[in-house]
Amino acid sequence: MSNTWKIYILAIISFLVGTSEYIISGILDNIAHTLGITLAAAGQLITIFSLVYAIFTPILMALTSSMDRRKLMIYSLGLFVIGNILAFAIPGYGWFIVARVIMAMGAGMVVVTALTFAAKIASEGKQGSAIATVVMGFTASLIIGVPLGRMTAEAFEWKSVFGGIALLGLLAMLVIFFTLPHIERDKPVPLSQQLSLLRKRKVVIGLSITFFWLGGYSIAYTYLSPYLLTISGISNNSLSGVLLIFGIASLVGSKFGGYSTDRWGVSFTLVGGMALHIIMLILLSLVNHSFIGVLVILILWSFAAWSTGPTQQYNLATIEPELSGVLLGINQSMMQLAMAVGAGIGGIFVEKVALASITWVGALGVLIAIIASLMAVNSNSKQKSSNLKEINQ
Fold it and tell me: What is the mean pLDDT of residues 5-10?
């Protein structure tokens, strides 16, 4: 088997573990009804997963740094499979939380190890493309996994989704065992060197863009299914199709974000995409019971939101080029933290204010991300001006 195919296998595995995280958004109403809990409590299942992923992945990767990467991949997938089996087999909200914690611990190590593998087995000069392919697999889970999960949950019982993921996880373990080579770990970057990045103002501003952009998105996205059903007037029969179209628009937006960054630059793409993001969230709160109107708004929202993704990755990679891998790793944890906080804040507003409030609160989060982007632009301009003065002197 060629290394190209092996990289695509890693991308598919990343898609699988990502789907287990984001699937909750598509079946939130079903989970709340079956477990006899509120929508807000069901939404915290995303918060828990994201927090465990963000906090424990760096710790677990440090503890397993001396382990062969293929063995680590198999063990991590095994942990992930156990979590999904628990989610499928054991009833009750409390046990479901335990299952989510175990899932997240396994998923985080799987994704990071998959990225390491991709870089190691890629052809010379193709490492960046290989990593991007694996990242695309994980991102696609957010985009495509949710509507697929909704369709599966409608055809069967929602817990069957986790049973199916567990079976596919077992299959993935076998595929890894027979196809991927043994590779040694990289020399680890000292933790002190990693943490030193967080003392730099431009790094903090860069990471805050990720936090507020994705946090604002998560506030609304986590509760999108019940919002569309109860506020926008979308029928239950139409919901799966609407979510799938939403996902396709995300892929197009992500592709456009990369093109726009190359053509018009980071600042224009970031600020322009997030401005459209805010407008669509506000319009979603104003347009109700018009199927075409809501669908158009959702398409533009999804397109705008995910045009920011590749641009922000590129933006961070250029802040500290010599430590871009470390910074992108920190950004992965920041993304998970943003999803967790967004889902948590969304839950508070759903419970204490109203379900309809999430679009406005989400828009506020994205607005803060725009302000952070403008601060970064201003800081870069001052830095360039200072450099020019030094050269002239």
Answer: 88
State the DSSP code for 91. -
Query: Tokens for 375?
Result: 């601060």
On whether both 213 and 170 belong to a single domain, the answer is: no
Length of the chain: 393
Domain that holds residue 250: 190-386
pLDDT tens digit sequence for 81-131: 999 999 999 888 999 999 999 999 999 889 888 877 887 777 776 665 676
**Of 140, 173, 188, which one is at a domain's C-terminal end?**
188
Same domain? For 167 and 221 the reply is no
CATH number for 172:
1.20.1250.20
Distance CA 330, CA 333 (A): 5
What's the structural domain count of the chain?
Answer: 2
Handedness of CA 321, 275, 264, 384 (dihedral sign): negative
Is the pTM of the predicted complex or chain greater than 0.70?
A: yes
Question: Is the sign of the CA dihedral 349, 355, 358, 360 positive or negative?
Answer: negative
Tell me: the pLDDT tens digits for 295-332?
Answer: 999 999 999 998 888 788 788 877 877 676 677 678 87
Q: Do 74 and 12 sit in the same domain of this protein?
A: yes
The answer as to whether 393 is a domain residue is no
DSSP string for residues in 254-314: HHHHHHHHHHH-HHHHHHHHHHHHHHHHHHHHH--S-HHHHHHHHHHHHHHHHHHHHHHHH
